[in-house]
Every structure is written in structure tokens, then in C-alpha cells.
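Consortium newsletter contribution from the modelling node. Members have asked for a concrete example of what our holo predictions look like. Here is one, prepared for the adenosine-5'-triphosphate complex that several groups have been discussing at recent meetings.
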Amino acid sequence: MNSRLLFRIFRSYLIIGGLSILVLSLFIHGQVKKQTIEHIEDQLTTYGRIIAQSPQQDIERNLHLLAGSANARLTLIDGGGKVLADSEHDVAQLDNHLNRTEIQEARLKGKGKAIRYSQTLHVDMLYTAIPIYSRDFISGYIRLARPLYAITASLQNLYESLLTAVLIVIPAALIIALIFSYRLTAPIKAMEEYTEHIRKGDGSGILLINTSDELKTLAGNINYLVDELKSKIQAADEEKGKLLAAFASMNEGVLILNRQQRIEFCNQAMENILDARYGQIGGKTLMEALRNVELENAFQRHRESRLPVTQEIVLGDAKKVILDCAISPVEGLPGDEKTMIVFHDVTRLKALENIRADFVANVTHEIKTPLTAILGYVETLQAGTIKDRAEAVKFLDIISRQAMRLNRLVEDLLVISKIELGEMRFRFETVSVRDIIRYAIPIIEPKAVEKQIAVWDRIPEALPAIKGDRDRLTQIFLNVLDNAVKFTPENGEVVLSAEEMNGDLVVRISDTGIGVPKEDLARMGERFYRVDKTRSRELGGTGLGLSIVKHLMQAHGGAMKIDSQLGKGTIVSLHFPKIEDDASV
Ligand code: ATP
Ligand code: MG
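And here is the predicted structure:
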């Protein structure tokens, strides 16, 4: 662009220069021609006047002499226009000259002039005529004529001088025009290069222009605008960085849709929510990416109103994810409206809500059953059965058992809630698991004997010590042993063993009981969860035993794992972190 600008300015200089020379030469041409003619005319007129003073006979006699000294053709004409003598032509061949322009003019004005082209000489001729007076009338005319070779010569001289001047001036003018053009375009070239750098994203440097005209002001303005632009871009980059950092650290998933309703941004949390099955979602529409009709409908509602819309959706088939979606507009340039969708994973929250609701229902039910029994028997006693002593004792026994059941339930619930609230006081000390188990087995033994179940203690003598609360550890083993005996039919076996595994101390209580279906295994340890509710209740259970074990194990930094085969038996493994560098107890 700039070389073209340089060329255009240079060409303008050349045209202006060329035109000036042309106009000047035309003007000088006219002036030179006019002045040469006037000069010749003056000469001839003067000669004419001098000749006209002489008597006619003298003129005729000295015709050639006079013509020679005037360096002109001399014609003597009488008052009627008849040619009396001519220095160059035969008079007999010349017609009457009265009507010639120069003669008519001389007759009227006292001097005449005309320029005519001579066919003979092929050049313009200047004719001047002066009247010859005899007293008061014109007796004849002196006409002097000279070819205008002088003009051509003068003009030739002029053009030669002009050409010389032009030949000298043109290279100089060219150089000057080039220098001027270059000086004019150099700053523009610098500006072009600088703005080109900026356009390509290189914001370094400053535009320096060494002039003191409008170009300097322009350069200053460009520098100012570039500075402004740089700081605006920097501010925008910072904002973008902050936003991206915020999006990256959010637990909520974020999607941003562009004007074409295609996904242009997806944060890490969103990628985590959508597992690999959804694949690459960038550039897709919401429907293509998530294939969820509720979300699509909510998005369409938002598009119509541009108002925030919320919607709960469920994604996934086997592993369901419940998401609270908030669709809102992103303010931007008109015509570039974007949409942001924030996905809040409420799966766990919903599950907890369900657990809480289940828990309340379970507690209510568990309390209501013994209460109904107690109230029923009390009513029957009040109605008169109290008088029947044998019946009364039986009823009171039932009432007492139901009340004890209620009491156990409340105590168990209290234990769990205390552990959950962190209010349970533990007295941790270095203890031997073997001692605790040896204390627990006799407590459970009567029940086992009753069902003729053999309880085998295969705990090795040398075992690493653990840190634990004796009473709570006893509670753990009693609960697990109680289950093992309770859910094992008569003549079964319960085996206790222990070993060190991956730095943990693992105690296993296995039985040959009824076992647990595979699908129920994951729920073992949930409050009130029982495989067979009625049976458990008949056996006096509340369904809190394993939940307490699970909580207590966690409080000891350990874990409970259950493995079972339906109809064959169950193994409950209790993992305790052993104390480092402690000798066996
Ligand atoms: P509670 O312990 O409060 O007296 P419970 O024994 O029924 O009542 P949990 O100890 O929490 O409750 O056990 C929950 C359920 O797990 C039981 O109802 C039973 O269905 C199942 N279960 C536990 N241990 C065994 C086992 N060893 N064999 C078979 N099923 C078991
Ligand atoms: Mg139990």
C-alpha cells in the first residue's frame, strides 16, 4: 500500500511539474511571437515613414536599395491601389492592391498591418503600409513586407533554452519530488508497520515519528489508542483468568452456550459429572450432548423469555445423577448473547433426604410396635385381667420385654447419634484384641449352646496391639458375634480368627448361617436395614447392631467389611490399624 502511496504522491509531483512547464512554454510562446511581430512591425513602419518622405521618383529609382536596407519587400502603390513598383515582383503581374487589409487600414488609420501566409515562400508574411500624402490627400502607399522567419528562429531559441533548462531541472526535480514523497510517506509506512504488528498480536514497542506536523499528532493518537487497547486487553485477560479459575475451582458443573446454542465452554466439574459415555461435548447442542428432554425444554423456555430458569434433571441409567440446573443469560455484546447453565449435583443430597425420611419412618415404626403392644396389654389388664394372677404375670412379662426393647432401641439410637455428633467419649488405650474377644465369647456362649452352635476361637496368641476403647470394642465383637449366632441355624459353627494384613490387624468372624443375598451386601450397616425385617424383629433385633459396629470401627480408624454367600454363611472382617513399633501383647 505504502509503495503505491509513494508512487501516487511522486506521480502528482510529476504531473504538477509537467503541467507547469507546459503552461509556461505556451505562455512564453505567445509572448515571444507577439513581441517579435511588434518589433518587426515597428521597424517596417519606421522604414515606411522614412521612405514615404522621399519623392515618388526617388523611391522608384532607389527601390532595390531601399528594400535592401529595410531588409524587406518594398512595394510602391498609387492612391487608387495600382502597384507602381515592387522590389521582388513584376508589376505587370500584380493586381490592384487597394482592398488589401494593410492598405485599407493605412488609408483609414494612417498605418496598416496584416499577416498573410505566402504561398511562394511557405511562411507567414507581415505587411505594413504607410500612406504617402501630397498636401491633404493620399497619393500613394509604401508597403513593406517581411517573412516572419525571425519568429520561428526566436521560438526555436526559446525551445532550445527551455529544453536545456528542463533537462537540467527535471533530474533535480525528480530527486526533490522523490525526497518529498518519501519524507511524506515514511511516517505513514512506519504507522502501517506498527499497526500491522499490533494486529498480529505483538503489542510491544512504541510508534516514534520525527515530524512536527499532523502526522506526529496522528502517531501520538495511535500510541494512546494502542496503550488504551493494551490495558483493556490486559484487564479483560485478568477478568477471564479469574473467571476461569473460579469455574475450575467450582464444585458445580458449568456449561456456556454460544449464540448458535452450541457448547463453547465446559468446566472440569462438569466433565467429572458427565462420565466418558457422553464423549466430547464441545461444539454440540445441549440435546446432542446430554440427550435430556427436560433440560432441552427448560432451555427453550429460557430462550423465549431470556429469564433465569431452573430445572431438576436425572442423567444416566445405571448410575443415576440428579442435577439441579440453573439456566441464565450471560450479558454480552448485542447479537452475541450467550447462556450459562450451572449444574448442581444433588444426588447425595437427595439420597440423604431419602435416608432421613426412611429413618424417621423406621424409628416411628420401631417405637410404635412395642408401644402398641404395651398399651394393648395394659388396657387388657385394666379391663380386669389383672385379677387373673397367672395371666397378669404373663402380660406383665410381655410388657416388660417390650419396654426393654424400647429401651434398647433408644439406647442404640443414642449411641449412633452420639458418635455422629462427635459427642461419644472414648477412652483409647493400648489393648489386646485377643483379651477382648476372650471376654466377649462367654457372654454369647449360652445362646450358642442353646442352638448347639460351636464357637471356635482361632485367634493366634501373638497379635499386634491396637489403640481402642475396651467397652466399645467389646460392644463391636458382641454385636457381630450375636449376629453370627442369631443368623446361624442349629448345629452350625462360628469361627473367630485374626491375622496381620497390609499393616492392618484383621479379625474375622465367620459363620455357617443363612448368609446375605449379594444385592443386600452393600446396604449392611445402614440404620434399620435388615434382610428379613419380620425375622429380625421376631429375634428381638432393631437393625441397629451393624450400624453401631460400622460407626465404632470408623471411630477406631478402622473399617468393617462383609462377605457372604446365601445359604452358606457370612464372614465379617474387622480391620484395625495396628500400633506401629509396638510389641505383641
Ligand atoms: P440388632 O443387632 O439391633 O439386634 P439385627 O441383628 O437384626 O438387630 P443388625 O445387627 O444391624 O441388626 O444386622 C442387620 C441385618 O443384617 C440383620 O437383620 C440380618 O438380616 C443381616 N445379618 C447381619 N449379620 C448376619 C449374619 N451373620 N448372617 C446373616 N445375616 C446377617
Ligand atoms: Mg445384630
